[in-house]
User: What shape does this take?
Amino acid sequence: MRTLYISALICLLTLSGKGNPGNGDLVLLQSLKGSWLFSIGINEEWISPKFNDSGWESIKVPSPWENQGFNGYNGYAFYRKKFTISSLYKGRMLYLNMGYIDDVDEVYLNGHKIGSTGNFPPDYSTAYNAERVYYIPEEYISFDASNLIAVKVYDSYDRGGIVSGELGLYGGKTTVNFDINLQGAWKFMPGDDPRRKESDFNDSMWDEIFVPAKWEDQRYRDYDGYAWYRKSFVWTGNNADEKMVIMMGKIDDIDQVFINGTFVGSTGYFPDKGRELANSGQEYDAFRGYYIPAGLLKKGQKNVIAVRVLDTGGAGGIYEGPVGIISQARYIEYWRKLKKTGN
Amino acid sequence: MKTKHYRYFAFIMLALIFSIQANADNLRKIVSLSGYWKFSIGDDISWVNPSYDDSGWDQIAVPGQWENEGYKDYNGYAWYRKTFKPGDVPANTTLYLMLGRIDDVDEVYLNGKLIGKSGKFPPNFESAYNRTRKYIIPFESLKEDAENVIAVRVYDSYLEGGIVEGPTGIYIDEDNKLLNLDLSGKWKFHTGNNKDWKSPEFNDEDWTLINVPDYWENEGYEDLDGYAWYRVKFKLPGNLSAGDLYLALGKIDDVDDVYLNGEFVGNVYDMRRNFEYNWNGWECNVRRIYKIKDGLLKRNGMNTLAVRVHDDQGLGGIYEGPIGIMSAENYREYRDEYHSDQSFWDYLYNKFIR
Assistant: This one.
């Protein structure tokens, strides 16, 4: 919208290849390359930190298992690794980068699912070319203690496993002191219906999706168009006259955010606006922070966020954090810290 | 043959010269406000308060987009504050605060008072990113020998944000020197159209106040197209008790009908007929100056000026000075100054068709 020149420049930059958009601003804290424990097969007990894996084989990660003595194997397998997370990282948004997994995976930290990419059989679909970056909710982490990663993998044919990538624990550039962190599992449904913004709308049949992450990596591989996200939470918030901001990170492409059925903020124009308003094509790259109208959050009660998203092509969804609710004072603090990190 | 060619060449040269000179504002900077300002993201109306302590705030270079000042990726509300002592400023002339181009929406406060705004804040967001901000500083609201505080509330939806580029400072319009009575400032304003509104007897008490000259979009009428009326009452100063007088109304977007004490004075099409000022194809580029008929102006009593404006689309209103009364002598100077303002086509029209 501003100028053709800028659009053209950004187009060029985009084309010149920026891997996973959600990965752009993360800092490597701890590498997880090297020796992992490995077993072919499938068993739900292997997800648990209590399971005794002392009899498992050691395998080098990342590398196709075909190169590690499992030549010709296709099907299910598990990877496990124990590692320590320093309490220095408390308050920071932490992400697990699992690199590129051939073909499908589900990742657990201390028994809690933190992400999944591709589709396991029977509705199999591969995601071998997607980089896995999963947000780790802080409540799943044991700081200064042993944490277990368990990765369930399915490979249909050819090379399989955690084949490549920069595996590790990653963190946001700085800490975000959310009043409520909204990253993690949300409800998700493709399509469009204005009733979906209402707090009493029944979303119990909706799919589960992780935020932030592209929906293409989460069973909606070729989907473009409308979709809704919903999440409910109990607001334990602070004093009522403090201004609150909902940070929605980056959304591909345009969005409208509602809390308890009330409109809160929007980036980009939906075609149904009734006016000829042009989108610039850069909405996907805009960081969202919307002020929450005073009195909208109900203290001590269930609150519902509903996000209407329109993806006009390519990647889609709430794909980059941080996502959560923060007081204005701490929001200002966050941006000033970001500035100091050199942004 | 030779002469003809020479003529043709001369026309082209003239066209070039005129197109360069056309539409130049005669603004002069008297106080610079570029440089470091105090800056905070967020939004809090208490920040308009001149005594608010912003010492803990960040600093940012103005003009410049905040994305280049360490706030890459930031979208939403932010405030700029600047404390300054202007020193001597010229008396009896309108002062303009220019803040260049602000992306997307702004509200500007001087010493705690709102003096101008452009665009619309959410939830009914409307960008004004491509407009240069030029706000009238209300008479006597700038303190010459004390600290003044400008607080600018900005909202950026996405892409570049802030006071991004252009002139930042306090300006005067040099043309206002030619006014014997400067009428710029607060006028009465009403949208719509009613022929009774030209009458001096009409009671406009409940009309809203609006700054003249300024686009009405900057005065809270963001989506207004069509008719609106301006009214102002004034008394002539004693030194204008004799001689021909002229009414200058600067530039108006798009079409005006001017009434003085209930009588029709003229409109833009009279300007066209007289052809003394530029006619760059559009009504909105014409400098309005109307000769006031003998006896129409009350030399001692209260006069009522009423201007009906019709705006076709986009920005509208009495948007650029000088606005006021000129003596015949000043009128001639003003006319001479902008004589070269006429376009190539005006020149042709004047030379050959009239």
The interface with chain B takes residues 1-2, 6, 243, 245, 263, 265-267, 280, 282-283, 286-291, 328, 331-332, 335-336, 338-339, 343 of chain A (CB under 8 Å). The radius of gyration of chain A is 21 Å.
